[in-house]
Amino acid sequence: MRPFDILDIEIYGGSHTPEIGGKLAGLPEGETFRPAAVDELMRRRKSGTYLFSTPRREEDEVVWEGCSLEGDELRVDGAITARIFNRNIRPSDYSYSRTPRPSHADYTAFVKDGSGAALSGGGRFSGRMTAPLVALGGVAEELLLRRGIRVMAYIGELAGVKGRSYLDGEVTSDEIAACHSSSLPMLSNIDKAAEAVEKAMEAHDSVGGVVECIAYGVPAGLGDALFDGLESKLSAALFAVPAVKGVEFGAGFALAGMRGSRANDPFAVKDGRVITLTNNSGGINGGISNGMPLTMRAVFRPTPSISLPQRTVDLDTLTETTIEVRGRHDATVVPRAVAAVEAAAALAILDAVLIHTERKL
Ligand SMILES: Cc1cc2nc3c(=O)[nH]c(=O)nc-3n(C[C@H](O)[C@H](O)[C@H](O)COP(=O)(O)O)c2cc1C
């Protein structure tokens, strides 16, 4: 799988296979990372850490291959593999390959893979596949930290309730770090958002939201024009996270309603460095980082699996029917997706850094 230039990433397994995992090649050999830091990111993705996650509990311990122990850190010896063993498997719980769940990947997987597709619990399309993504993204975050770059995400909007956003003014890395230990990783309005999700749950429904991500300390000059742009690379990575249906940078779609005089980010000099006084461009001009923090937003659809009756078709008989989805599902995927967005962005940024510094293109 390759949205990247230097890094080569492969995620394997499925929701109810005995093992899932991720392989990552292209990391600089000899670099080290703290497995405990990766575990902390995994904890933030795990069900049970934040409100409204699926009752399916998985320990998500990562077994690393391709690394050797150096004190309490792991040294990258070449291509690395993050292996995760599924313990809480219940394949019969939810298999919808004959009567596809509206807006899940059941129908498109049937079209692509045929009727024998192993789609139990969403198969390779399941949100569970973000576990290995987060493990590998955690390593990318560690390598970026050593280069002075910190990638952090939080919920910007949940169930229609907006929290404080980078669009409202500067958001510091300390504020984001602090919100990660709340009941929801959101900068404000947690109670209001929780209430809105609960209301949807009482109605057997689901909700979506927006995850915002900021990369601090990104030097100017990463990326390039057209298809080699940083926005292209980051978008490709963010759209790999299941349920993401839109990505924007800086002020994003709101730019459509602004005049140039308001949208443009004026240049200034601070401490001998070129900065911009606003950051509507999200730290990227012409596909190249301008030295300001990278800011981006990813919109998540409401969880497709809901227990309300929904119209579908029986693919065997090609007749219309209804389904009520049973099984263990997140009422909203947004709180757990924060770690996945952070991980995907970190991998994309690390790839851009490696192109720039290691290969010297
Ligand atoms: C962390 C996470 C958990 C998810 N959990 C569920 C779930 O419990 N039930 C469900 O129907 N979809 C869940 N999804 C979303 C589906 O995987 C996704 O909607 C589906 O694969 C179709 O892909 P698309 O929405 O990107 O088109 C989850 C996504 C993420 C990121």
Tell me the CATH architecture.
4-Layer Sandwich
Fold-level CATH name: Chorismate synthase, AroC fold
Main sheet summary = 5 strands, antiparallel
| Small molecules bound | flavin mononucleotide
- Oligomer description: single chain
Distinct helical segment count:
8
- The helix/strand series, from N terminus to C terminus, equals EEEHEEHHEEHHEHEHEEEEEEEH
Binned strand content: 15-25%
| SS elements, strand count | 16
Looking at CATH, the homologous superfamily is Chorismate synthase AroC
Rg, Cα atoms, Å: 21 Å
CATH class (first level) name: Alpha Beta
* Ends apart, CA distance between termini: 22 Å
Backbone structural class: alpha+beta
Shape: globular
Uncertain spans: none
Describe the structure.
The chain has 361 residues and is an alpha+beta fold. The protein has one domain: Chorismate synthase, AroC fold (4-Layer Sandwich), CATH 3.60.150. The chain has eight helices and 16 strands. The mean pLDDT is 93. β4 and β5 (73-85) form a beta hairpin. The strands form five sheets. Strands 1, 2, 3, 4 and 5 form a five-stranded antiparallel beta sheet that branches. A five-stranded antiparallel beta sheet has the order 7-6-8-14-9. A two-stranded antiparallel ribbon has the order 10-11. α1 crosses α3 and α3 packs across α8 (334-358). Bound molecules: flavin mononucleotide.
